[in-house]
Amino acid sequence: MSTPETPAAPPSPAAKAGAGVATYLDERLGTNAAGKKNLRKVFPEHWSFMLGEIALYSFIILLATGVYLTLFFKPSAQEVTYDGVYAPLRGAHMSEAYASTLDISFEVRGGLLMRQIHHWSALIFVAAIFIHLFRIFFTGAFRKPRELNWLIGNGLLTMALIEGFAGYTIPDDLLSGTGLRIAEAVILSIPVVGTYVQFFLFGGEFPGDDIIPRLFIIHVLLLPGIMLALITVHLMLVVVQKHTQFPGPGRTNENVVGFPLMPVYMAKAGGFFFIVFGVCALLGGIAQINPIWLFGPYYPDQISAGSQPDFYIGFLEGSLRAMPNWETNLFGHSISWNVLVPGLILPGIMMTLLAVYPFIEAWVTGDKREHHLLDRPRDVPVRTAFGAMSIAFYLLLFINGGNDIIGLTFDISINNVTRFTQVALIVVPPIVFVITKRACLGLQRADLNRVLHGKETGIIKRLPNGEFIEVHAPISAEERFSLMQRNTYAPLAAGPATDEEGVPTPGHKVAKVRAKLSKFWYADDMPKPTPEEYAELTAGHGHGDDHGTDVEGHGH
Amino acid sequence: MKRLSARRRHPLAGLVVLLLALGAVGGLYSAFAPSGTAEAADDASSLQIQEGKGLYITSCSSCHGLNAEGTSDGPEIAGLGAAAVDFQVGTGRMPLQSREGQAPAKKQLFTEEETVAIAAYVASLAGGAPIPTAEQYAADGDLQEGGEIFRTNCASCHNFIGKGGALTRGKYAPNLTGSDPKHIYEAMLTGPESMPTFSDGVLTPEQKKDVITYIKTIAAEPDPGGYAAGRIGPVTEGLLVWTVVIGALIGAAVWLGAKPS
Ligand code: HEM
Predict the structure, then answer these.
(1) Is A288 touching B (CB cutoff 8 A)?
(2) Pick the residue with more confidence: A62 or B103?
(3) Could you point out which of A228, A491, B117, B198 has its C-alpha 20 to 30 Å from the C-alpha of B110?
(4) Pairing state between β A333-335 and A455-462
(5) Residue A1 falls within a domain, yes or no?
(6) pLDDT tens for each residue of A362-409
């Protein structure tokens, strides 16, 4: 704290106390050495590196508010007669779980606020996981050595979806009961074992008395415990493997450029936590969410128009609604493709593809090196296009989940919305792929132009011979360096089909497929200019500006 | 006792009793008859039917036929009764403007009086359910009972709290939160379009009243949780999160992550 010029200032009492505690801990736990190392850990700067933090902070808020709710929530399907303060339901028969949620909402001090903060943070939590995932994907942060953390993240995403579904279900209101019913139908559609699995999970016929207490334990103990452990590992891996950074002057695959954890990053992170907390609390205070008292208690014979799950389950709802009504009869058993495919097979494929993507990419590109410098999305057009295409697919499913709301709001027939989705699911993703890839290549070309010719100034000059040219100003050396630090790859070759003796090379078929894919991946990339090319090009362009002096010094 | 029984035997006693009884009956009658004499009432209602007939012929007969027997442009409505007509005309659905899709509720074309006249005319053709009285559709039934009946019988089309919902092929169950209690009663009684009919055998008049009580009470309930974004539920909640909330948080991240210059 004290500056060198005023060495006489005595340490404040607080500082003395702090030093005392630090010494006490150090003498027993050896914390100073560990602290020195970790608190000086450098964290690179970029706003997109803070997206994962939103998920972390909302998880902490979920833990805190969830503990409060647990004090008052009764996870029981026991039927009771409601006699609380909410008049429209007084005298109604309902489960104890639903009654206690009403009590939390209307009679427990701060209960409604806590419920609403809990639910808003749940939505923010899952949304934050998604945008965090997008950042990791589009910048290639999942590449070696971070594939394991990618898998852990995938596990966390899956568990967050289940956790949210379980939390949404335990209040046992009519809306969530409808969701549970759909989940049951999906389980029942599993060939051969579906019925047994359903009986095992529900402890008998739907809905039964067991499912609410079971989901409760899953929701408050099992999944939060596993997630907490996985989040810890996730973050420890970030520390051990160090954080990735965007390319720039002075940044290499071997270093990390940024601010030390203490104090700069700590201050930022702490501030960010309070921002996230503030947003959750604000929403919980002023915006109603999940008004279960309006939905009524769950009875299997009731259902409401416009029933919708929380957004993160919406894509499943949408895929169920998009599926044509196909069923097969096989040896007296009907296989309900109409539920099985959209409810289990499709999401299974989606989650699997997401999880194994890093391994697919590494195989196709043959790139087994470590990467600590991130890609700019435009520099890997095929990956970026795959990502955009997948998001388009997901969004279409998601939108179809609300086909009734869309139909009603915009006065379109539900049948037409569904038909549109069915066609769009097949047609739109490839179109998105092509457009995104083109856009990336266009941006690459623009980068190249910037490097070779400088940036456009908007000033038009007329030459003596009457020709008009735009004056280009040279870009800074830093920018030029950053723009050209990307990797370039040559497509892999399949190698000869036979060796010198004419014996077929083992695995040649696979190698051929891989070579094709690799070509698809890289063939269209803009090549980076070689230093010779660069010199030649700039010399040949008589724009009157002398640019490109110190490029070769960077030696790309 | 003795005196009383002695007087009862008075020769004029029979006459007095007869007079008293007649007086009582007459008094009762005039107390119960709505206005004037029975004849005058008859006149008034036949006048009303006459007026209704005139309006019917000009506005409705082109589609429903001169005797409400139906044409290729509109179904038979003779026998549907006054309630059906009052609902259709009272909510502005009839006279129909275009044959496309479901007849939408719109601004009522006729005055209340004219509406009742048309209803009376159609009822005079072949009877049917009468327009309910204000007592029948007063919102003072059992709230909780009404909620339960509503969730069992109506929510599947009209949503938990009557926000409305989409049906197949562009049809829809309308939003009920602003519906007139009388029209709610009539809708249940007559089952317009693809809505089922809830006759008194299915839902007793008492239960209909409960339902009306529920719809009107819930629509007027404040939202204890704060701004409810139209009470549509998860869709608006998700939309809010993905636009405003995530937008604001990313904004905060950009702000915090900005390089100190
Ligand atoms: C980690 C992510 C979590 C997610 C995504 C999540 C999500 C949800 C959701 C959507 C609800 C429905 C709330 C509502 O009524 O609107 C809920 C309810 C509940 N949650 Fe969580 N939750 C999480 C963690 C926790 C934790 C850690 C606890 C306890 C330690 C907890 C305890 C509860 C309880 C008791 C309820 C039911 C009470 C009520 O609805 O009022 N939750 N949760």
Answers:
(1) yes
(2) A62
(3) B198
(4) unpaired
(5) no
(6) 988 888 888 888 888 988 899 999 999 999 999 999 999 888 888 888
Distance, CA of A112 to CA of A101 (rounded, Å): 9
Mutation for testing the A interface, residue in B231, B237, B242, B259 having most A CBs under 10 Å: B237
Query: In this structure, which residue's CA is closest to atom 24 in ligand 1?
Result: A62
Question: Would A349 be classed as within a structural domain?
Answer: yes
**Interface touch A45/B231, C-beta < 8 Å:** no
d(CA B198, CA B129): 12
Total count of domains within chain A: 1
Whether B158 and A305 have beta carbons less than 8 Å apart is answered as yes
Q: Is the pLDDT of residue B101 over 80?
A: no
Q: Which of B127, B253, B123, B118 is nearest to A276 (CA)?
A: B253
Distance set, CA A21 to CA A17, A24, A314, B84 (Å) = 6, 5, 51, 83
Q: Could you tell me how far CA A36 lies from the centroid of its own chain?
A: 32
Domain boundaries, position A516:
316-453+487-496+504-527
Rounded distance between C-alpha atoms, residue A312 and residue A325, angstroms: 24
The complex scores an ipTM of 0.79
Give the DSSP per-residue string, A358-427. Answer: HHHHHHHHT--S---BPPPGGGSHHHHHHHHHHHHHHHHHHHHHTHHHHHHHHT--HHHHHHHHHHHHHH
H-helix or E-strand containing A524? Answer: none
The mean pLDDT value of chain A amounts to 86
Nearest by CB to residue A296, choosing from B151, B163, B256, is B151
The whole-angstrom distance between residue A218's C-alpha and the CA centroid of its chain comes to 23
A361 has pLDDT over 70: yes
Query: For A174-218, what is each residue's pLDDT tens digit?
Result: 999 999 999 999 999 888 888 899 988 998 888 888 999 999 999
In the predicted structure, residue A539 carries a pLDDT above the cut 90: no
Cα–Cα nearest to A205, from A237, A181, A240, A221:
A181
CB B151 to CB A308 under 8 A?
A: no
Q: Supply the pLDDT for residue B4.
A: 47
Q: Is the dihedral of CA B95, B98, B99, B101 positive or negative?
A: negative
Q: With respect to residue A508, please indicate whether it lies within any of the assigned structural domains.
A: yes
Amino acid present at A330: L
Please check whether residue A328 lies inside any domain of the structure.
yes
Domains and CATH numbers, chain B: 42-126 (1.10.760.10), 143-221 (1.10.760.10)
pTM to 2 decimals?
A: 0.84
